[in-house]
Amino acid sequence: MATTPLPPAPAKGPIFLMGAMGSGTTLLRLVLDSHPNIAIPQETGFMRAYNAHKFIPFKWSGKNWAKRLGWSHEELDRELAAFYDRLFMRYVETHGKQRWGEKTPLHTWHIDDMARIFPEAVFIGIVRHPGGSVSSNMTRWRHPLPKASYHYQRYNKEIARQAARHQGRFVLLRYEDLLLQPEPVLRELLDWLGEPWSEQVLEHHNVQGERGGKTVVEGRVKVDDPIDVSRLDKWTRTMDETTRRRLTARLKHLGEFFGYAMDDPAVLEPLNDRDSFLVSGAEVDARIDRFPKLEIRKQEPVPRFDRLYHPREFTLAKVPPPEELKAKREEAMQADAQPSVARQVGERLPMKIRRKLVKLAGNRNLDE
Questions:
Q1: pLDDT band for position 364 (50/70/90)?
Q2: Of 116, 157, 244, 269, whose CB count within 10 A is highest?
Q3: How far apart, in whole angstroms, are the C-alpha atoms of residue 80 and residue 74?
């Protein structure tokens, strides 16, 4: 079957890369940043600064400060967009390029704002097998399985939801397809972006390595590492069977939404009938209807750090010095050695009820 390409993106504005941590966002950034026309720096998180501009953190009257100066929300957005564009364009021009992009996983929660203040922006979402993504975050950041699984669920459901909302400006691709078929995937992607083909995107490890500067960037990624197909199933060799069963129970259906089989990372179900690696926002929208139990159209809870800070909801707390924290940990460990009343009661409960309580505790919402 011949590939039917997507029509080009409607504009050639900023390129925003979206994805959960551990999904290959840094690899995709380094690849596209190696193109002669595109400059994508290390992640900035600048949309949290945008929130702070809109509502001054921890100030009770901080919400409408600009309005009191006679600025409408729309006018302030235009000023902020021009300001951020100027910051990124200086970086672009320093590197002799023409177009800027940005990659910060937490920007998943700012897509609507970015789409509004940058009306010519386009979005590229990248997803990865639940096993690979969760294992990566458990290994790099020591996240426990419940936290790593919840991060995967919350971020990837939001990316799918936003792809369906911003259809013509949003495409989705899989990390595994990028690893297995880098040239076809990148040819499709550059065509959609309206950029010419360049062999440099296939040599990103050489391009990045020859620039000098940092050799290890965000995500503890080495810039001169080539695309490594062994990463596709690395998690199957490092994750024990018990953890894999628990992961499957949590993320099987969301994995299937993105075309994954939990027991075989080599199985990649086509996500469209065009034989294309890029999935359009409209195709994501249609796929959502096939998985109603996932409730993807319902927004997941926004992490607390990416909400507008309201002084009635948040306050600053001083972090104790390291030695005090260490003493408290040791005190807690000693306390754990003595059975608590709750633990003594729990040990008397029937095993079936105890297992249910443990499961509920493991599934609690965790903010990143």
A1: very low
A2: 157
A3: 10
